């Protein structure tokens, strides 16, 4: 499927009637793309100019002059008088466009890690609302990319609207697949399995649930609502939830569907891979794409951590309560923090 920005007319989709509606026709949108469609595309990449970098420098100095903890910095503490408008356009394109973007041109060699954390947080404030990644309330964490081996890295989606990662070292790469393309592939060849995407599955909460709540969450994998298709997927969490007595077992068709999704996620036709250079920020809409970060070892060098930030878009798509969850502070899809919150809000977030 060729996205709209390449000059192809995208016909309107039928409106979804309710939160439980099932999409039964191919999803025609800018978000439905194959890797080959993006070979010559550039609109997913935002290249910062020298003036933009100077503006970031000025914003960093302003934030440092505030003498506030990083989690208390808001957009007014990180002023971007010209760049802010472009970042708002990025946020819009993440929800209505390809579902991912890259911000390039931040000279990582000029900054220490603490400065890069502040820059990522400040840019995030202009894109959306940061939300917690774990029960400790960590909102700006680190993640270790998977080793790039012959086995394809597992692509997943996080709970928040958007995941942002910033590269700290070399040898890293992002892998991204359109979730709408996955749906269209399944619908074309296995329509009886496509319907199952809209059924409820149980996901392990990895011990991050608040006291008194169940250790798993019951949500559909796909949601057809307000004219948009949203998909959230993590095979690891689905399989892991099977250990709980209150979770129904997966039947043969469920397993066939999950195996098919995994197979498609490994398809070279669908996987778009792009280097994540030091200082670059990659952004992923967790309802529109599935993604992973990998590391290609060079001369025995170990993988370097990435900075990671979860965001709620201020003007993101409408979603029913059966598919997402609110935190009461304007954000959605986060892990509800417990009473104990680290003072800096900075911690390590490891992905299986």
From TrEMBL:
<dbReference type="InterPro" id="IPR042098">
    <property type="entry name" value="TauD-like_sf"/>
</dbReference>
<feature type="domain" description="TauD/TfdA-like">
    <location>
        <begin position="74"/>
        <end position="301"/>
    </location>
</feature>
<dbReference type="GO" id="GO:0051213">
    <property type="term" value="F:dioxygenase activity"/>
</dbReference>
<dbReference type="InterPro" id="IPR003819">
    <property type="entry name" value="TauD/TfdA-like"/>
</dbReference>
<keyword id="KW-0408">Iron</keyword>
<keyword id="KW-0560">Oxidoreductase</keyword>
<keyword id="KW-0223">Dioxygenase</keyword>
<dbReference type="Pfam" id="PF02668">
    <property type="entry name" value="TauD"/>
</dbReference>
<protein>
    <submittedName>
        <fullName>TauD/TfdA family dioxygenase</fullName>
    </submittedName>
</protein>
